[in-house]
Amino acid sequence: MKLSLGISPCPNDTYIFDAMLHGKIDTEGLEFIPHLEDVETLNKLAIAQTLDISKVSYGAVFQLLHHYRILDAGGALGKGVGPLFITKNINYQEQLMGPNTRVALPGINTTAHLLFSMAYPRIKHKVFVPFHAIEDMVLNGQVDAGVIIHENRFTYHQKGLHKVADLGDLWEANTGCPIPLGGILARRDFDPTLTLSINRVIRRSLEYAHQNSSSLPSFVTENAKEMSQEVMRNHIELYVNDFSLSLGDKGKAAVVQLIKASLTIHQTSVPEKLDMFMEGI
Questions:
Q1: Which residue is catalytic, options 35, 67, 132, 150?
Q2: pTM metric for this prediction
Q3: What one-character-per-residue DSSP string does the chain give?
Q4: Which structural domains are found in the chain, ordered by start?
Q5: Which residue from 12, 181, 189, 227 lies 20 to 30 Å from 276 (Cα-Cα)?
Q6: What is the pLDDT of residues 157-173, one digit of tens each?
């Protein structure tokens, strides 16, 4: 059976999904057709119900629950992993609260945007661009500040940029929960046995990656050519953790908390009886 699979080209995703995409493990008769896109593109593809399985921002999940369920494996949650609010001028920080401050963000549907909206509700002048363009926009003065994600958190200071706030830290301080960044969703209309099989394969793929982590697979390095090996490994170590193997009760509670925040921000709701997570683990 062939299934479309959307993931990002970032090292954490390519690390997790490499083995199942390249015949290194038992995929239980399933063949996964990869679509590598930045996370905001993946969000839009999922909103359009284009993909069978996809990595998405948890900030977008409230829009997707009618058609997808959250899988237990493959996601990105944790502490100390949140998006960073950065600027060029360290002395400009106190002025960043104005409604006309220009801020670049990595997509309207991203968790980064949700967390920023919660932390800085007065700032309305937002520019949504691919995440890799944000640092340069701040450096060039096209915007006053930006919210960076992924590997940029390891390199922004080398470019002379300064952190105003860690949006993940603010979330953790307010909720006591790890920050849910991105999760893996599968179509809601899949037979439960198929959904469980998909989840097992993802977990098996990650376990294989951990067992063979002494060298990074070419699928990781070829999709992150602009990064050093050190940054690739830092990226994986930060975003791939026990929550990637299984959300567990703590991870699920954090996801529910974030979805509730999304519903509040967007002044909407989902049916109470609509199950969010895959059953039968």
A1: 150
A2: 0.91
A3: -EEEEEE-SSHHHHHHHHHHHTTSS--TT-EEEEEE--HHHHHHHHHTT--SEEEEEGGGGGGTTTTEEE-SSS-EEESS---EEEES-GGGGGGTTSTT--EEES-TTSHHHHHHHHH-TT---EEE--GGGHHHHHHTTSSSEEEE-GGGGGTGGGGT-EEEEEHHHHHHHHHSSPEEEEEEEEETTS-HHHHHHHHHHHHHHHHHHHHTTTS--HHHHHT-TTS-HHHHHHHHHHH-SHHHH--HHHHHHHHHHHHHHHHHHHT----TT---B-S--
A4: 2-77+180-266 (3.40.190.10), 84-175 (3.40.190.10)
A5: 12
A6: 888 899 998 999 989 99
